[in-house]
Specification:
homodimer; mainly alpha; Tyrosyl-Transfer RNA Synthetase; 3-stranded parallel β-sheet; globular
Chain lengths: ~325, ~325
Amino acid sequence: MMVKKRILTGDRPTGPLHLGHYVGSLVNRVKLQHEYDEFIIIADVQALTTNFDHPEKLSEDVYNVCLDYLACGIDPNLTTIFIQSHIPEIAELTIYYSMLVPISLLRYNPTIKTEAKQYGYDAKGMTYGFLGYPVSQAADITFCQAHLVPVGADQVPHIELTRKIVRRFNELYRSVLIEPEALVGDIPRLAGLDGNAKMSKSLGNCIYLSDSPEIVTKRVNMAVTDPARIHSKDPGHPEVCNVFAYQKAFNPKFSQELEENCRAGKIGCVPCKKTLIAAVNELLEPLRARRKKYEADKDTINQILIQGTKRAQEEAKKTIALVRDAMKINYFK
Amino acid sequence: MMVKKRILTGDRPTGPLHLGHYVGSLVNRVKLQHEYDEFIIIADVQALTTNFDHPEKLSEDVYNVCLDYLACGIDPNLTTIFIQSHIPEIAELTIYYSMLVPISLLRYNPTIKTEAKQYGYDAKGMTYGFLGYPVSQAADITFCQAHLVPVGADQVPHIELTRKIVRRFNELYRSVLIEPEALVGDIPRLAGLDGNAKMSKSLGNCIYLSDSPEIVTKRVNMAVTDPARIHSKDPGHPEVCNVFAYQKAFNPKFSQELEENCRAGKIGCVPCKKTLIAAVNELLEPLRARRKKYEADKDTINQILIQGTKRAQEEAKKTIALVRDAMKINYFK
């Protein structure tokens, strides 16, 4: 029997998942779970790097993110969904790896710099934990000896750091860790319906997987389109239109003809949006059905999380034993 | 019944313990174990911050440090001796605390700066793990809810950082952690017998607790005394003489009269050293007897470490449960 390669992927539980997550990774995960042994980490400890001052939301977010996964079609019989904070070995590996990583590799890492800026941390206010999250990511990936990590091109430097840590560990001690590879997908980046790159509840600029048909209608109707198009007969510029980007991502019926009609001013934004609303609702319909089923049975979700976490713990125990042996700190063996 | 307050103390296992450790802390620990619930951490993970590239010595060092403790009179029935790497909760607490500590608090910490210099790390070469060791120390102290930490005055800033972390945690989440206090002792600092502040095997400038009477004689005879005293009848300057410092620390028979005789050039270095050799050997005699007893029974030492670590693990489990509850990340409770 061919053993399936293992994939590690996941999310920080910081709120409900939206269409950006769906097109960017969830739809891919649903596909990959059939080809690979898929592990999905709910990275609650990593969420704490930026949310340490209000962890009370985490409990709800962990539950909801899991519900989102199940709604999308992640099958707990194929995929191991688990909670980061319940795998102490991830913390242990983080500590061991932290001895192998020079500060300079983190401080001058462009992705950390960008994210620090995004969260408003200057060099002074940044916490020790935030600076180290790529080290903790290396532990997330390696604790279960994942072979592959599906990422967008912008995340490749993080995987490179993980690979560097693994190589350093294997060279220094003994070759026990699997060096993971980035499975770089052409991950579409979806902007908010208002054109803002950041999607958030407070901006009301995105469609959550849990949104009702009414909310979907409302959100799309409020979407900003081509600002140069004032009258419906003005020629449109799809390349600057958010709705066009959403059509391409979610509407299989959206055609070359519709695009040409927009450019020629033959179709207005209102009927165009109508086709998008229909398409998104059609897409979300099966998700809503699955969500309804699971929502009625909270205990099942808890059991899925508990069982997934248990399986992850078993893998973690195997890996930490290998790591301790390699480092020769398994004194009582 | 009055519950004893808990004390946390310990060492990095980086080699055998010497007379500097004895007078600086070990003798004090033997006393304190009767008044307090004493926990002694063998900080092997912290040893890795500087020794990550040769961990193969750790196994031997952990064993020998424990043997040194027992030789000194640490009583495993009174004191819990345990191994840091076997308490995963310390790693977990380190990760949680790391979100509460701004980088600047670590980078501009004078003790870290001094130690980094000592190990030859510049700002670039310093590892993430090394920079964070005071955070990991906070976890060492708090995982067992220690009330007191015996330290020298120069270590007070580290305890201050632990107190800061504990206050921040208790304020942010819920007051579950005990804020430890420094038990500042007038800890004598002993220099090497060659006058070098650093004692090391390669310099051959210190007396290990495990040294034989012959080695003690050899080491003291090679000790540098007052360099201005060329002939035995020259007046001596005890204040610059290493042997004098050792006499004061270890020779209860060393008298005002002997000191005056030295100053007057009435006693030479050779007979003075002879009295020190006798005193040190007298001091070490009971340690040698206990060492001999334990050495003959390696399994007992392993059992002491296993039992101590087990007790520490129980305390760790209690604390991490409190911490998870306080942070509201104990999802399945």
